[in-house]
Write a structure and sequence with these properties.
There is one protein chain. The model has no long low-confidence stretch (mean pLDDT about 95). By secondary structure, the chain is an alpha+beta fold. Strands 1-2-3-4-5-7-6 form a seven-stranded mixed sheet, with helices on both faces. The protein is about 30% helix and about 35% strand. It has a single domain (about 1-150), classed as Gcn5-related N-acetyltransferase (GNAT) (Aminopeptidase), CATH 3.40.630.
């Protein structure tokens, strides 16, 4: 069973440090828009704003009481948000990507009252492409070097 917890908003919190460590994982960096290592002080400044921003929703997904994935929704316009996910490196390869993403999207549609969820994925990130398409995201095209996808309310598989 997948459960969610809102992040602790304190930039010095264990949640902040955990997300910073996950973000600086080599594989995560390769598949991110920004591939540089993020210094702790930079992360804390970002986290202090992001964790309290009313146009963002940041959660940690848990599987069997173990932190599995960070989910962040970023506001685009009324009823539309972009989803960003970052799997705990220790939880990769355990088959959690699709159930976590599906549960996060269901949460977005129900609790955040979304109509559409967007995603941008590097084309070479084959595991993410398969997971997003597997829950019903449809390819829209390319924007810069990223594939863009959308999932509309009622299309979640």
């Amino acid at each position: 069973m997948i459960t969610f917890k809102s992040v602790d908003t304190n930039p010095e919190s264990a949640d902040s440090r955990m997300l910073w460590e996950w973000r600086n994982d080599e594989t995560t960096r390769k598949m991110s828009r920004t591939t540089d290592v993020i210094p702790w002080e930079n992360h804390k400044a970002w986290y202090a704003k992001a964790a309290t921003d009313p146009n963002k929703a940041i959660f940690i997904a848990f599987s069997e009481d173990q932190a599995a994935c960070m989910i962040r929704f970023d506001f685009i316009n009324q009823g539309d948000m972009e989803i960003n996910i970052n799997m705990n490196p220790a939880m990769r390869g355990k088959g959690l990507g699709k159930p976590v993403l599906a549960a996060a999207c269901a949460y977005g549609f129900k609790t955040l009252a979304l109509n559409r969820i967007y995603a941008e994925i590097k084309p070479e990130n084959t595991p993410s492409v398969k997971i997003f398409e597997g829950v019903g995201f449809k390819f829209l095209g390319k924007r810069e070097d990223l594939n863009t996808y959308e999932l509309k309310r009622g299309e979640l598989r």
